[in-house]
Amino acid sequence: MSDIDRRTFVRNSLTTSAIISVTGCSPSGEQAAESNHPSRKSVSVPSFSLDEITIDQIHEGMRSGDYTCRSITKMYLERIEALNTTGPNLYAVLEVNPDALTIADELDREFQASGPQGPLHGIPLLLKDNIDTKDGMTTTAGSTALEGSKPLQDSFVAARLRDAGALLLGKANMSEWAGWKSFEFGVSGWSGRGWNGGRGGFCRNPYVLDREPGGSSSGSGVGAGANLAVATIGSETDGSIVGPSSRACLVGIKPTIGLHSRGGVIPIAHSQDSTGPMARTVRDATIMLGTMVGVDPRDPLTAASEGNFLTDYTGALDPAGLRGARIGVLRAYAGFDSRVDALFEEALDVMRGEGATVIDPVILPEELRFGNEYEMEVLYHEFKADLNTYLASLGSNAPIKSLQELIEYNEAHADLELVFPQELLVESQNRGPLTDQKYIDALRNSHRLSRDEGIDQSMDSAQLDALVGITSGIPSMLDPLDATGGRGGGCSTPPAMAGYPNMTVPMGFISGLPIGLSLCGRAWSETTLIRIAYAFEQSTNHRRPPEFLSSVNLT
Q1: How much is the pLDDT for 50?
Q2: Is 549 helix (H, G, I), strand (E, B) or coil?
Q3: Is residue 34 part of a domain?
Q4: Is 41 a catalytic residue?
């Protein structure tokens, strides 16, 4: 397919909506000034009474009788109907739970009979489409190859969320196969569609609709950012929770590998994959984090979490949490955009003003800054092994049963699936088993660089509590052949390769587009990162809802 054909496909896939002023929105301050700019037009969306509501506020409303789980669920279903494939056409939600209102009624009965079942009782959540649920929904990783696939059991994460009382409202769009398909596709948030219908199509950034939402947890970011659910669950191999969270003005937590089980999650690589919460506040993300922990026989790496996890992380929510903290600056990951750098400097000044000691710079191995051969080799090998294991878990009725069958399916359905190539799938299929010395050496070197000579060494030598960097750059245009504004930035690779926690919190805006601040640290240091992130959030309050701008001019 030619570049011209691909550009036409992209543009034809993006429905053009009427460009008029937002209704039911009364911005103030910086937001009002930006909204009044003549070049900043917004797509109309209906007002929403649950806009920006938190978990605590919903529970307070349920106790007072102002809300029921049914009323809340109904409002979110109507919100999805109004924004997902009409209005701004966000394409953030692939399907909603057909039993959502029935489940809500049961949760209401339980609440009336005995109070909340858990910390998420009655809270509607969206799950990324690679997280198994055994219910009326499918799990496809955004691919038409798995369309109609219904797992034989809940993922460990979904089961824990249900135990905590959550209502699993729907499946969120995502970069197909979590982005592990082609380097040639230049934007995130696309799942198999082609010209003839299909699973997902393009997910759009609610802040500026012609900008990409980040990936691969695209729909999860847009779903929480645009108030299509109280919060969402994403997954990350390298940047896929924190990146979309940054672009949707969210808090995202990618925990230490093993804190959350990957049992029943469509994989890229077990050495780096993790699920995590994406929410509008640090407190909501923190409440969610503790509901998904636990040792799972389906995921051997969770054994290391025994004694290292908490079921309640809210004790870390200290507004004075920056006082006395020692924070190292990942300066090498800045410098790609002067506008983003200015926000970063302001954030560092806030930290100093709140009592933190800022050590600038902290140097990590140069090889960690860019895509490196060790990480890629680990992902190539583990994707093949882990995907084949996952497909086997679907039983004899699985639509496809191996990576090789997936590659063949894509070739046979090129109109749906090969708008862009699949060289990453082919390269993975060409790899051998996990006993290959090439894989063993790559994993050892990956951990050496990121842990021994990277995060651990730098933090130990300067006695640091956390490392801080820029989460991502300005979101690109939603056109793989026009990456205006978005390249550069992101410090997710060191903690991704190490399997260590990474967290993003809103840092500010550039022309209406959100930018995030990243905090990462040692294994099992989630409480420390939450404490610092919460203090930063409380002192800055950068979160604001989207205006659904049609476009912006970046100068």
Answers
A1: 98
A2: strand
A3: no
A4: no
Residue at token pair 């050590």: 359
Q: What is the CATH number of the domain that holds 11?
A: 3.90.1300.10
Q: Is residue 133 part of a domain?
A: yes
Asked, for residue 32, whether it belongs to a domain, the answer is no
Catalytic residue check, 171:
no
CA separation for the pair 14, 354 (Å, rounded): 44
Alpha helix segments (H runs only) across 297-397: 338-353, 373-393
Largest CA distance in the chain: 62
CB contact at 8 A, 540 and 516: no
Domain encompassing residue 160: 3-18+45-540
Q: 432 lies in a domain? A: yes
Determine whether 398 is exposed, middle or buried from the number of CB atoms within 10 Å of its CB (0-12, 13-18, 19+): middle
Q: Is the dihedral of CA 127, 128, 132, 136 positive or negative?
A: positive
- Single out the catalytic residue among 35, 41, 128, 476: 128
Catalytic annotation on 216? yes
Instruction: Give the whole-number percent of the chain exceeding pLDDT 70.
Output: 89
Quote the number of domains for the chain: 1
Reported pTM: 0.94
Q: Which of 35, 182, 188, 240 is catalytic?
A: 240
Name the β-bridge partners of 172. Answer: 93, 128
Q: At what angle do helices 100-114 and 69-83 cross, to 10 degrees?
A: 150
> How far is it, in rounded angstroms, from Cα 143 to Cα 172?
13
Where does residue 293 fall: left (phi above 0), alpha (psi -120 to 50 degrees), or beta otherwise? Answer: beta
Catalytic residue among 216, 217, 271, 305: 216
pLDDT band for 487, please (50, 70, 90 cuts): low
Poorest-confidence range of 56-60, 188-192, 437-441, 535-539? 188-192
